[in-house]
Design brief:
The complex is a heterodimer. By secondary structure, chain A is α/β, with parallel strands linked by helices. Chain A is built from 17 helices and 34 strands. In chain A, the strands form 12 sheets. A 5-stranded parallel sheet of chain A has the order 10-7-6-18-29, with helices on one face. A 5-stranded parallel sheet of chain A has the order 20-27-21-22-23. Chain A is globular, with a radius of gyration of 31 Å. The two termini of chain A are 35 Å apart. Chain B is an alpha/beta fold. Classes of the chains: A alpha/beta, B alpha/beta.
């Protein structure tokens, strides 16, 4: 680097029009002219698009021709283009950290309407940066090695696809699934829109590949409990919950299930959302991966009965010795370079809309239950019969239950219109029932989706534009089985009453119940709805604000299977790029102790959440381990003797900014 | 000061991960709010040195707004709690110095809460307007003048570090 601290400061200032985004509100010419009058400023220009190649070239040319050694750009948020301009600065031979960015778009032009006020604010912010940069020092970017291996949290279709993509590329993948089997929600679906191909047919081969892949370690029935470290070096603790089966010894023969003292399945089957029954020892569903049984301590007599059980399951297992009632929870640790979060969603609890009678009237179902009822491997072997054993002759499907609703969830869940049409098709196909769909708006964007809508509406499914306001037992039905749906047909402008045998609630998608906990574990952010927040909605859709942590699937927001798989592929590519590059560059905003000023009071030592500060006994001084420091600056602000300095955020730099924003013109 | 109506000047110290990002979001969403806050970006609200706050008041700020991540959500685990401690101390200290404690405000604003940036800033501007100017630099001058008239030496320039 050619500049040194003794050289006189020569600042180049550039204000960006950003088309009319900035220049439409801020008088950029006036700002540039004002800045030109400030001390140390050699060049002050305005330009239409500073981030464009000619804009960057302008800076570089000025650096060369005017021997500039500090650059200030007033444009958009530094979170967007700081790196662009640092690179441009570096290309012309000066240290990239002798650069400062002023945010006059997001923080000024876009949020104010009065030109005079916005210009005054831009001037104040620019002046602060002009006063700040003389204190900037050349800094070096540190490279930190990235460990191989990627953790994928959540084994639904998103996690499965991401894991397989990475594993096929030669990366070691640890796939952690909370449930007994991978497959997630998709494994429970019957057919998938818009192609109506069977969910199991397209999903289960991928599930088997996960099990068979030499690069994938699958930890099912496990949860990530702790994540330490930083990008490239995440130390992950995974809790493996006891399933009372030794995974490596179980062959999945299910002879133990046959042998169980419970001759018949007796307990609600979670996989079939409670519509079927299972034994205490069970395989969640025939194509479960891993294909091993589990014992539920909540229902197994060994755990629940004071006299225990004769344990015929153990006898049936014989020499395989796969059953182990003494199994305990186990913690395993692994270090990975990147993490993909694909923890999915939960369905909206329809009980929260009491007037639809879910949980009150047995013939009101949610859509996931109907998925199981029409599924050939479901509790009724694919026959659509209701809880009363009858086939429905008329079915009402209510869209937007827990979506687009001020009282529950405001967002559109994106998949409900389409899966409602799919269910209408399947119900009609299986029962020849008359099906009525009640929708607010029919939303069918995406490839082949409008065609699918046209196809289904041509099949004789009734589509009524109107929100159902009430569901109640039909007073005309002596058996009290039929229900009346009351809705305003907004196209006819009339309130109508529809007697139906069965009501299907198209429930929306919500953040998983423990999304907040997952977010904290991985140091991510959530949007206001509770879905994980991507770094940038358009340009960094699978990244998070925590480097090396990526998002895939519905944990980031409701989406259909094609979009989920596409996003999972994108997350895998991002993680792959990081891990195969082998290093990350770290922002040099770490702190250090100026030994001669340190009084050795130790007040900083316990403040550091990363244990980066230690007390050197022989010198009686604090010392900061740069590799552990993450650059928050908390110790700097707390040091009573002012002996700790944070690079890029030195006291003098901040004081100059304060002075700059408050100075009178 | 010109003959225009007095407008409060507020210095904002926003953490990079939550509140600064939320202010960016407010911008991207084109929310409109009062132009009185000048934001200084720090990596964490834990970096806000009490001296920054005092210096801002001494240099003419009528209010100081500190924005950090919600409790439990700090990008650096607990820097925001460290700020919270200092905030309570600072408020008491400001009161003792004759500065209305309400001129210092600490808000937890997450990266998703662009609308909170808008409402907090508008609310704070309204409250500071109701309090009126703090005008410490002017008061310093007056006091210096009085001291000089009494034959004392003038006040020392504000110094740092």
């Amino acid at each position: 680097m050619r500049q040194s601290m003794s050289e006189p400061v020569r600042i180049g200032f550039y204000i960006c029009h950003c088309g009319t985004n900035i220049a439409g509100v801020v008088d950029v010419d006036r700002v540039a002219k004002y800045v030109a009058t400030l001390p140390n400023v050699v060049v002050s220009r305005n330009y239409k698009y500073m981030c464009s190649d000619p804009g960057q070239e302008l800076i570089q040319q000025d650096i060369r021709e005017n021997q500039l050694n500090r650059i200030v750009v007033a444009a958009c948020s530094p979170l967007l283009h700081e790196r662009t301009f640092r690179n441009a600065t570096a290309k012309a031979g000066i240290n990239p950290f002798c650069f400062q960015m002023v945010n006059i778009r997001e923080h000024d032009a876009w949020v104010h309407t009065d030109k005079e006020e916005a210009t005054t604010k831009a001037i104040a912010l620019a002046r602060a940066a002009i006063r700040r940069v003389p204190h900037h020092k050349p800094l070096e970017v540190k490279q930190v090695a990235v460990q191989p291996g990627v953790l994928v949290v959540g084994g639904g279709i998103a996690g499965i696809h991401a894991a397989l993509t990475l594993a096929d590329g030669g990366q070691k993948v640890y796939l952690v699934e909370r449930d007994l089997t991978i497959g997630g929600h998709m494994a429970r679906f019957d057919k998938t829109f818009p192609t109506l191909d069977c969910a199991a047919c397209i999903l289960t081969p991928k599930m088997s590949q996960v099990r068979a892949h030499p690069n994938i370690t699958l930890w099912s029935y496990s949860e990530v409990v702790k994540v330490d470290g930083y990008v490239g070096n995440y130390r992950v603790t995974v809790k493996r919950k006891p399933r009372y089966i030794v995974e490596d010894l179980c062959t999945g023969c299910q002879e133990c299930v046959e042998a169980c003292v419970y001759r018949q399945p007796k307990f609600p089957d979670e996989f079939n959302v409670g519509l079927g029954l299972r034994k205490p020892v069970f395989l969640p569903f025939p194509q479960a991966v891993p294909a091993i049984v589990s014992i539920d301590p909540g229902t197994c007599r060994v755990f629940t009965h004071p006299n225990g059980c004769k344990q015929p399951c153990v006898t049936a297992c014989g020499d395989r010795k796969a059953i182990d009632f003494s199994q305990k929870e186990e913690l395993v640790e692994v270090t990975v370079g990147a993490v993909i979060v694909s923890t999915g969603f939960q369905i909206f609890d329809a009980k929260r809309v009491p007037y639809y009678g879910y949980g009150v009237y047995p013939n009101v179902y949610n859509a996931l239950e109907v998925e199981r009822l029409v599924n050939a491997s479901g509790p009724t072997n694919g026959e659509l019969v209701m809880r009363n054993g009858k086939r429905p002759k008329t079915v009402g499907i209510i869209h937007c239950v827990g979506s687009r609703d001020e009282n529950t969830n405001r967002w559109c869940s994106r998949v409900c219109c389409l899966y409602s049409l799919k269910l209408a098709h399947l119900i009609k196909e299986r029962t020849e029932a008359e099906v009525w769909n009640f929708y607010i708006d029919m939303r069918t964007p995406g490839k082949l989706m409008e065609e699918f809508y046209n196809r289904i509406s041509g099949e004789g499914v009734h589509l009524v534009r109107g929100k159902v306001g009430d569901v109640y037992p039909d007073p005309a039905d002596p058996e009290g089985q039929r229900l009346v749906l009351q809705a305003e047909d907004t196209l006819l402008g009339r309130v109508l009453k529809f007697p139906v045998d069965m009501v299907v609630l198209s429930i929306g998608l919500e953040p998983a119940a423990d999304a907040q906990q997952v977010r904290r574990t991985l140091n991510m952010s959530c949007g206001s709805e509770g879905f994980f927040l991507e770094r940038h909605p358009k340009l960094a859709p699978v990244s998070t604000c925590n480097d090396g942590i990526y998002l895939a699937g519905c944990c980031q927001g409701p989406k259909d299977i094609p979009d989920t798989v596409a996003q999972a592929g994108a997350a895998a590519a991002e993680a792959y790029a990081l891990v195969t590059r082998g290093y990350v560059e770290q922002e040099p905003n770490t702190a250090y102790v100026v030994e001669e000023d340190c009084s050795g009071c130790k007040s900083c030592v316990p403040l550091c959440p990363y244990n980066a500060i230690s007390f050197v006994e022989d010198k009686k001084k604090a010392a900061i381990n740069e590799a552990l420091c993450k650059g928050c600056g908390t110790c700097v602000a707390s040091c009573p003797s002012g002996s700790i300095v944070q690079n890029l955020f030195e006291d003098q730099e901040i004081f100059s900014e304060i002075e700059g924003v408050l100075a009178n013109e | 000061m010109s003959e225009k109506a007095w407008e409060p000047r507020i210095v904002g110290f926003f953490c990079n991960w939550c509140t600064y990002t939320a202010a960016d979001l407010a911008g991207v969403s084109r929310m409109k709010y009062a132009p009185n806050v000048r934001v200084i970006r720090l990596m964490c609200s834990g970096r806000v040195d009490p001296q920054f706050v005092l210096d801002a008041f001494a240099r003419g700020a009528d209010g100081v707004l500190i924005g950090g991540c919600h409790p439990g959500d700090c990008h650096y685990a607990e820097g925001n709690y460290k700020m919270l401690r200092r905030y309570h101390l600072l408020r008491r200290m400001l009161g003792d110095m004759g500065i209305e404690p309400e001129r210092l405000r600490l808000e937890w604003i997450s990266a998703a809460e662009g609308d909170k940036v808008k409402s907090v800033i508008n609310d704070m501007v309204a409250k500071i307007k109701a309090l009126g100017p703090l005008g410490l630099p002017v008061r310093f001058q007056t006091w210096d003048g009085e001291l000089a008239a009494d034959g004392h030496a003038g006040r020392e320039e504000v110094r740092h570090g």
